[in-house]
Amino acid sequence: MLRRRLMFSAALVAAFAGLASVPAAAAGPAVPPGHGVAAATGVNPGKGGSLPGGRTFSSPADRTVVTPGSRSGGTARAQGTQGTQGTQANPYPAISLEGSTPTAHSIDLTTRISSEIAGLDITIAWGDGTTDKVTASSTGFDRRNTQHTYAAVGSYTVTVTVKDTTNGAEAVNRLDFVTSGSEYTAHAPTRLLDTRAGLGAAQAKVAGRGSVVLQVAGAAKIPAGVTEVVLNVTATNAAGVGHVVVQPDKDGFETGSNLNYAPGQTVANQVIVPVGKDGSVRLINGGWDSVDLLADVTGYFTASVASGYTTLNPVRAVDTREGIGTAKGQVAGYGTFGVDMAGHGGVPKGATAVALNLTVANPRAAGHLTAYPSGQAAPSTSSVNFAAGQTVSNSVIVPVGPDGKITVRNGSWDRADVVADVVGYYSTDSRAALVCLGGPYRVLDTRIDSWGRKAGPVPARTMLPVQFDADTTNSDIDGWVLNTTVTNTKGAGFLSVTADPNTWPDYRNGTAVTPQRPVSSSVNWTAGATVPNLVQTSGGKGGVIDFWNQGWQDIDMVVDLIAWYQTG
User: Fold this and answer.
1) How would you classify residue 250: left for phi > 0, otherwise alpha for psi between -120 and 50, otherwise beta?
2) Stretch (H or E) spanning 17
3) Per the count of CB atoms within 10 A, which of 15, 88, 265, 558 is most buried?
């Protein structure tokens, strides 16, 4: 069981309200113009809960293969040292193996060896060309835990060999093991599901409290070994208020959500979701009325070497209002523009994909944006959906074209502004691998009491710090994947989600630095709206993430943990 404490302190939110609240003369636009690298500060001294996660693998003792020495010839299966009453004890070692996945690249191996012989030599071959050797000095039962970190994610066969040097006997057991970490492979944006057209499912709305099963493995050349998939999920033609949960099966994370919708609204959100054993994912309509669902794939993960992730402090790559990254001025209806990614804003040459927060602002008519690799025809998919006058953002993972660029298309017939912040990239040189939960896991809801914080909104122009990692000054989590939802909004605004440059000991010792208010945006909202967005962010060296309410009215906020990227 992989356990990681998630904690936050409301007690110091009030103390930091003055520090984090820097009033301005007038409210700015929902998406702030200009670029900037975001930084923030937060604290967290409390104790938190633990997460479900991790997988276990086992090979019982009866799989031990024994090659006897001088006592007898041939081979045998070990049965353990003690049978039922009246039987003789087995003189040969019996090996039981169990492996768990404490981190993305590691195994925690438990070996249990039963033997009448002392002085056994034990060799653990990890399957990557490395070995560990130990000696069991006593007879009876030897139990030990040994950890090993692999250089790369993947499938490995761990072989444990026990040698009785006195009699020349040898016992062997093997454990097939797969790392919990997965790496990313870019995929051209492709529509897998559209209930309006009968694509990927029946041609019918998903009923209230109903679900649809989407086959992922084998679709659009996605391999059978896929472990997680990146989907842009869209809800449209909704008859009522509701939400959507995307997960590997029908059971599990009932309190979380990936997407919220309202009547007549077309809204999209990116999800990263594990793929079930049968190669499918399930989209659950959490509302009481029917809704149409769409899903576009932009990449997938496998437990094999591909592209790891590197997180970045948010960097503004595009702002058509300021002429950043492209020409100044709104993008014409059905117009496109290219954006240099590789070699810019911290994204290296050779990056296979970029993680962006893509925002549309000041649109003159309803429509959608589509982000896709350069050098390709515009796909029939969407990245952000919007109504006239709406400022809305969506997290996207976009494959990078061979020339290091991506293309953004305005799918509306009229003009709109486009803003894009880079939050990370995928490359073959990046080592952080994805560790994904089975579905959204709720860690914060400001509307209810939780983990030492009394229910209450996040005040205007303040930040709420949340500690996601255990007390550490050197977190090995490179990035956190969060579904962040803002609700009970009274006016327009935006939320910034950024890494904390301090550690909790800095706050405990009174040495924390004053945070710089970020200018990037993660979630944009209007009055009365409930808006979700997937956020990929670093937690800094201390595993602390800050949520900045950049609006001028209080808001409630809900945060669901989806996954994390880990180097260890």
Assistant:
1) alpha
2) helix 11-20
3) 558
Instruction: Retrieve residue 409's tokens.
Output: 């298309």
Using DSSP's 3-state secondary structure scheme, residue 114 falls into strand
Tokens at residue 20, please? 């984090």
What does residue 14 show for φ and ψ, rounded to 5 degrees?
A: -65, -40
Query: Do the beta carbons of residue 323 and residue 392 sit within 8 Å?
Result: no
* Strand ranges for 303-416 from DSSP E: 308-319, 336-340, 353-361, 367-373, 384-386, 392-399, 405-410
Closest CA to 220 of 390, 436, 380: 380
Q: How far is CA 475 from the centre of its chain?
A: 16
What DSSP string describes 500-558?
A: -SS-HHHHHTT-PPPPPPP---SEEE-TT--EEEEEEE--TTTTEEEEEE-SSS-BEEE
Phi, psi at 16, each rounded to 5°: -95, 0
H-helix or E-strand containing 13?
Answer: helix 11-20
Across the range 416-437, mean pLDDT stands at 97
Least confident of 114-118, 458-462, 530-534: 114-118
Inter-residue contact 110 to 145 (CB < 8 Å): yes
Q: Would you call 277 exposed, middle or buried from its count of C-beta atoms within 10 A (0-12, 13-18, 19+)?
A: exposed
Rg (CA), the chain: 26
Structure tokens at 148: 């090993």
Tokens encoding 178: 């797969």
The pLDDT assigned to 465 comes to 85
First to last CA, the chain: 16
337 touches 343 (CB < 8 A): no
Which band of pLDDT confidence, cut at 50, 70 and 90, is reported for residue 80?
very low
Q: Each residue of 110-156: pLDDT tens digit? A: 999 988 777 789 999 999 999 999 887 666 788 999 999 999 999 99
For 506-527, b where at least 16 C-beta lie within 10 A, e where not — what string?
A: bbeeeebeebebbbbbbbbbbe
Quote the strand ranges of 78-208, DSSP E: 94-100, 106-115, 120-125, 131-136, 140-149, 155-164, 169-178, 183-194
Q: Would you say 301 and 216 are in contact if contact means Cβ atoms under 8 Å apart?
A: no
Kindly list the distances between the CA atom of residue 403 and the CA atoms of 69, 379, 428, in Å, as whole numbers in the listed order.
64, 18, 17
DSSP per residue over 243-273, as a string?
EEEEESSSSS-TT--SEEE-TT--EEEEEEE
Distance, CA of 393 to CA of 385 (rounded, Å)? 9
Give 221's DSSP letter. G
pTM of the entire predicted model: 0.88
299, 148 Cβ separation under 8 angstroms: no
